[in-house]
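Problem: given the chain below (190 residues), write out its structure.
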Amino acid sequence: MARASLRESLIEAAVERFHAHGYAATGVKDITDAAGAPKGSFYNHFASKEALAIVALERYGASRRLEMLSDASVAPLARVRRHFEFLRDENLDAGFTRGCMVGDIAVEVADHSEPVRAAVHQSFTSWRDALAQAISDAQRSGEVSKAQDGATLASFVLNAWEGVLIATRTDRSAKPFESFFTVVFGVVLR
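Solution.
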């Protein structure tokens, strides 16, 4: 099997390090060490840590399985639930030590870097749009009330999810997930 390119190794290391330790706590040397690359080679591939963070956000977003939300072989509301179950299970597997890298970087960096803020905004917009489409599909099929439009419901659910991730990390407990699933699927998306 061919070795991944150095650029790919740097991206993978950045996603892992940013997700585990945050943007500020991760230095270029941390990333190059994790990638098994000389520090000087970093700048052959990225102009800055900020530029790498933007690529890492895109890569992380691609791993969120947004395609689950458009799988027409599954009922629309079940798609939404399965998506959040996947994300919940991923968090449980990490022992409540990681939240959403997009949300974490939004809180940590977005006020200080316009390019990173724009990348975070794009990540959330893509996620919200995929979620809104699935919710709208559920509304058309009669699974979800049409009292609010799909985009409004998607924004609320996404914001609730980001809050739940903070609560699970501080509580080191799955309890916030239970509340999320009870309220979102028992009240909000009915």
